[in-house]
Amino acid sequence: MIPNIKQLKNTDSENFFLMAGPCAIEGEQMALEIAEKVVSITEKLKIPYIFKGSYRKANRSRIDSFSGIGDEKALKILKKVSETFDVPTVTDIHSAQEAAMAAEYVDVLQIPAFLCRQTDILVAAAETGKVVNIKKGQFLSAGAMQFAVQKVIDSGNNNIVLTERGTTFGYQDLVVDYRGIPEMKAMNVPVVLDITHSLQQPNQTSGVTGGKPALIETVARAGIAVGADGIFIETHPDPSVAKSDGANMLNLDLLEELLEKLVRIRQTINRF
After folding, report:
1. pTM (predicted TM-score)
2. Which pairing describes strands 174-175 and 131-135: parallel, antiparallel, or unpaired?
3. Distance between CA atoms of residues 193 and 165, nearest Å
């Protein structure tokens, strides 16, 4: 299953689809550089691709953390990426009031995990008519996501994606319960595994989220093996200088090799 988006290419390839890009839009040149590289890779491998970038980061531990370059400026960059490379885009919203604004620029509205139970945000996103990607809360079971799905459906929108991004384990770690992927797929919506956020180590005493990027391939391979429809990866040319979530992002130069392996796993799975 894949989202119903007109611009989404390679939808007949039987591959998983990919949401990938930087954590936050840091500037136009960086966004275009990442998009160009990922578009080239996904066209080569016939992977349906949606460019991801947050126009603002509202959920930061510290008040002095980078939150964005300005809403309109970042949203215009997302629009330029879409127009330049003819690919759909996804960004997250943080309140009901932001839904209509963001919908003017992107194809998919993403509901952050901590906000996935907020009825007003879900309804507002649904009413834009855009695809709604709901991230499963770190505090929720997979089965509980049926109620978020139903809120969007009851608001007149059936174009929904669910994203697994790990479950809280203690205070400073996350684990992926792969049983949740088939459980959410049974809700008749595409299910994505957010690989990089699943490897976060939140609530560090420094106020900066840590991560385990060395396990990106391990988590990704397992996700494809259990039937994830899509994968979500935050990537950056140099994660060490990224302004948000650098500790768990994938270096852009490593993306092609990873995707090649995942495509081979998917091809094997498709034979069963």
Report:
1. 0.92
2. unpaired
3. 6
